TrEMBL record:
GO molecular-function term, one example from the UniProt record: 2-isopropylmalate synthase activity
Task performed by this protein: Catalyzes the condensation of pyruvate and acetyl-coenzyme A to form (R)-citramalate.
Main enzyme class: transferase
Stored PANTHER family: (R)-CITRAMALATE SYNTHASE CIMA (PTHR42880:SF2), HOMOCITRATE SYNTHASE (PTHR42880)
Keyword Nucleotide-binding: no
Entry protein name: Putative (R)-citramalate synthase CimA
Organism of provenance: Methanobrevibacter thaueri
Similarity field: Belongs to the alpha-IPM synthase/homocitrate synthase family.
Organism taxonomic ancestry: Archaea, Methanobacteriati, Methanobacteriota, Methanomada group, Methanobacteria
Primary gene name: cimA
Keyword tags: Acyltransferase, Amino-acid biosynthesis, Branched-chain amino acid biosynthesis, Isoleucine biosynthesis, Transferase
Catalytic activity: pyruvate + acetyl-CoA + H2O = (3R)-citramalate + CoA + H(+)
Pathway: Amino-acid biosynthesis; L-isoleucine biosynthesis; 2-oxobutanoate from pyruvate: step 1/3
Length: 489
């Protein structure tokens, strides 16, 4: 059975405290959702503001295959704004719990049904598809909930949605609730919140009980503890519920996760399933050994399935198999005694509380192998001109193979200008700076700065470090150290 996906990242997800997306950011996310096969995109809430309406209009103008919806209360003024935005459908949200009916709306059950029916009629008269969402359905009287839905079907509502608005369902109660509602002769969808960390589990139970549509947000963002996590739910359906499927291109999941994280500024916890940075990272020696022999030993899915790559982490729990694999990736072949010595040295470093990076690994391995490198490039001098009304400009003097070279560059800041002064030289043009990280090692304005970078040339990636009180010098030294490593290799 094919399960349809309604993504509400642009509406419910944007209600995450501190998140406010620009029209361009919304369009980028919507375009990616369309690209990866989402069936329904809730683009926003048209009643919210003029800016929100402009964002929705930009999305509806694209002619996506996905159905574009706006959130709407059961009020003509809301629906009129939806019509102005030229959406295909409305997510018509109608409270159905006595708590909401009496305390929030100060009305009665009968008046609530009339309000719902009138709103559906108004939508259908104006050519809109209607998904009626029963707000706080998980705390509603089920018989009354059925009555609201049956009335909605009589008035030509297209889809019915059960909302666990405050996340109180459990997998068992979710299955029971949807089992009691799956015979209403209309597609049934599930919208869960994650207040108790059960949104994905409750959504999967609803699917098993008859729901044919799920509501999600990318990275599980949303108010309070968030909504059903898109990536966790999609991969779980694909791998754990073989009788069900979706139209989502699973290999694109990591890309849209990173896009939403960058656009919203909402940090993804490292241990988050599927998209967290540690989801396919291994440090334990036993695990690394098993993974190298057969990845299924300690991974339920391959990282490539969702657009990821496996990582072996350097640390005190590491074993020699994972270490040897990482050394080979760095182009270093060692014998058994050398491998054991490098492993012991790394564990000594980790026991001191230090995070072991590829730069540390390179230094330790060089020491064990007694490699003395002859660097082709040497930094002689860096000069910076920068100010409020001056474009940052850098001149860099370096020596390459005993030839002194002076070059200049500009950038958005002094570090960028200094690196650009190097990158414009022919020797550096095919080298890409793919990662840049800065730490202050000591306190105070005279703190030592530790700059760690990653450079890529073709299919080879190297790390390098520069440590100086001056961030510009540290950055340039790290960059040149990395280039020297690439040239050696």
């Amino acid at each position: 059975m094919n399960i349809k996906v309604l993504d509400t990242t642009l509406r419910d997800g944007e209600q995450t405290p501190g998140v406010s997306l620009t029209p361009l950011e919304k369009l980028r996310i919507a375009s990616k959702l369309e690209e990866i096969g989402i069936d329904f995109i809730e683009a926003g809430s048209a009643i919210t503001s003029e800016g929100e309406r402009e964002s929705i209009k930009e999305i509806t103008k694209q002619g996506f295959n996905a159905e574009i919806l706006s959130f709407s209360r059961p009020l003509n003024v809301d629906i009129d704004y939806c019509l102005e935005c030229d959406v295909d459908a409305v997510n018509l949200v109608v409270p159905t719990s006595d708590l909401h009916i009496s305390d929030k709306l100060n009305t009665t059950r009968d008046k609530l049904i009339d309000l719902s029916n009138d709103a559906i009629d108004y939508c259908k008269d104006h050519g809109l598809i209607v998904e009626i969402s029963a707000e706080d359905a998980s705390r509603s009287d089920v018989d009354f909930l059925r009555e609201v839905f049956l009335n909605a079907i009589d008035h030509k509502a297209d889809r019915l949605c059960v909302c666990d608005t405050v996340g109180i369902l459990t997998p068992d109660s979710s299955y029971d609730l949807f089992s009691r509602l799956n015979n209403l002769n209309a597609p049934l969808s599930v919208h869960c919140h994650n207040d108790f960390g059960l949104a994905v589990a409750n959504t999967l139970s609803a699917v098993k009980a008859g729901a044919s549509e799920i509501h999600t947000t990318v990275n599980g963002i949303g108010e309070r503890a968030g909504n059903t996590s898109f990536e966790e739910c999609i991969v779980s359906i694909d791998r754990l519920l073989p009788e069900f499927s979706t139209n989502v291109q699973i290999g694109e999941i990591y890309d849209i996760s990173k896009l939403v994280a960058r656009s919203t500024g909402v940090y993804i916890q490292p241990n988050k399933a599927i998209v967290g940075e540690n989801a396919f990272a291994h440090e334990s020696g036993i695990h690394s050994d098993g993974i190298i022999k057969n990845s299924a030993t300690y991974e339920p899915i391959t990282p490539e399935l969702v657009g990821r790559k496996r990582k072996f982490i350097l640390g005190k729990h590491m074993g020699t198999h994972g270490l040897d694999s990482r050394l080979k990736e760095l182009g270093m072949n060692v014998n058994k005694d050398q491998l054991n010595q490098i492993c012991n040295d790394i564990k000594d470093l980790a026991d001191k509380g230090k995070t072991v990076t590829d730069v540390d690994l390179q230094a330790i391995a060089d020491n064990v192998l007694q490699i003395n490198h002859e660097d082709r490039i040497r930094l002689d001098e860096v000069t910076i001109v920068s100010g409020n009304k001056v474009m940052p400009t850098a001149s860099v003097k370096i020596t390459i193979d005993n030839e002194e070279i002076l070059n200049a560059g500009v950038g958005v800041g002094p570090v960028d200008a200094a690196i650009n002064a190097l990158k414009s030289l022919d020797m550096f043009k095919d080298i890409a700076l793919i990662e840049y990280h800065v730490d202050a090692i000591t306190g105070g304005t005279d703190a030592f700065i530790d700059v760690i970078i990653k450079l890529q040339q073709g299919d080879k990636v190297v790390s390098a470090r520069g440590t100086e009180p001056d961030i510009i010098n540290a950055s340039v030294k790290a960059y040149i150290a990395g280039v020297n490593r690439l040239l050696r290799d």
